[in-house]
């Protein structure tokens, strides 16, 4: 949910990039950092990595104009893609204002993409992040045999009304378009809430990458929290991804 950050006097949105490992989430956030040089409010923050893989999240903050007359700030995060860290995905996907599902559209990546999408849809159905807009990115379009965006949407049974953007994130292709669609959807969601209660109706808080990192470490001490996420992941993994 959008919140008002008193430290920056700005309405703040959170866009989360979801998907399994190597789909291109980190590459997207790095390219966003390079593309939006005037808007960014800092560098990409990565609390922990192992052999170049994200263990918690990648984080980038940007000033993205206004929503009505209020300054607008955006926190962009990626989730760790490995199923070993599924509880961390569970936490980060709880309160986004928009989600970008990064899909590996190569033939080898299609089944793994199905698992990632199944997990996300299961979370949505469980009410973890109800009514959140989802933008789909058909990444790795440069690889041999990669499904074009329209064909990937059919293969994954993505709703016809959803935005599906073809991309080669490593070359910066489709990165800006994907982000702008997600930002537009999140901005409209914030605008609707501001019409109801104004800034006073939003939660008032300031939250940095360091704050989120500490919260995640604290939650990981809860066995119940980890079991809930792990059970969902186990169910997804046991299902036939071709169905």
Itemize the secondary structure elements and their pairings.
Blueprint: E1 3-5, E2 10-18, H1 25-35, E3 49-50, E4 53-54, E5 58-67, E6 70-78, H2 86-92, E7 98-104, H3 110-125, E8 134-139, H4 149-155, E9 164-166, H5 175-197, E10 203-204, H6 209-219, H7 223-238
Parallel strand pairs: 1-10, 2-6, 2-7, 7-8, 8-9
Antiparallel strand pairs: 1-2, 3-4, 5-6
Mean pLDDT: 86
Q: How many runs of DSSP E, i.e. beta strands?
A: 10
Q: Could you state the oligomeric state of the chains shown?
A: single chain
Briefly note the CATH topology name.
Answer: Rossmann fold
Which percent range describes the beta-strand content? Answer: 15-25%
Tell me the name of the CATH class.
Alpha Beta
CATH superfamily: P-loop containing nucleotide triphosphate hydrolases
The SS-based structural class is alpha/beta
Shape: globular
Task: Give the proportion of residues in helices.
Answer: 25-40%
Number of helices: 7
- The Rg value, from CA coordinates, equals 17 Å
Question: Largest sheet, if any?
Answer: 8 strands, mixed
CATH architectural group: 3-Layer(aba) Sandwich
The separation of the N and C termini measures 33 Å
SSE series: EEHEEEEHEHEHEHEHH
Total discrete domains: 1
Low-confidence stretches: none
What descriptors fit this protein?
243 residues; Rossmann fold; eight-stranded mixed beta sheet; two-stranded antiparallel ribbon; single chain; 10 strands; alpha/beta; 7 helices
């Amino acid at each position: 949910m959008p919140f008002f950050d008193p430290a920056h006097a700005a309405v703040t949105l959170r866009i989360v990039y979801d998907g399994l490992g190597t789909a291109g989430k980190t590459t997207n956030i790095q390219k966003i950092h390079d593309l939006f040089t005037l808007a960014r409010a800092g560098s990409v923050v990565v609390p922990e990595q192992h052999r170049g893989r994200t263990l918690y999240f990648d984080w980038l903050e940007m000033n993205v104009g206004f929503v009505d007359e209020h300054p607008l700030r955006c926190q962009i995060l990626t989730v760790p893609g490995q199923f070993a860290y599924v509880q961390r995905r569970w936490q980060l996907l709880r309160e986004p204002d928009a989600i970008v599902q990064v899909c590996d559209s190569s033939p080898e990546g299609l089944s793994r993409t199905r698992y990632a999408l199944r997990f996300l849809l299961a979370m949505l159905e469980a009410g973890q992040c109800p009514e959140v807009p989802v933008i789909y990115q058909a990444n790795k379009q440069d690889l041999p045999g990669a499904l074009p965006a329209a064909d990937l949407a059919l293969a994954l049974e993505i709703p016809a009304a959803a935005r599906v953007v073809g991309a080669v994130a490593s070359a910066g292709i489709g990165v800006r378009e994907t982000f702008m669609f997600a930002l537009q959807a999140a901005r409209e969601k914030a605008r609707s809430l501001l019409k109801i209660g104004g800034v006073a109706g939003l939660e008032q808080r300031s939250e940095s990458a360091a704050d989120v990192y500490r919260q995640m470490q604290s939650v990981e001490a809860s066995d119940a929290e980890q079991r809930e996420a792990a059970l969902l992941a186990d169910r997804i993994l046991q299902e036939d991804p071709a169905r």
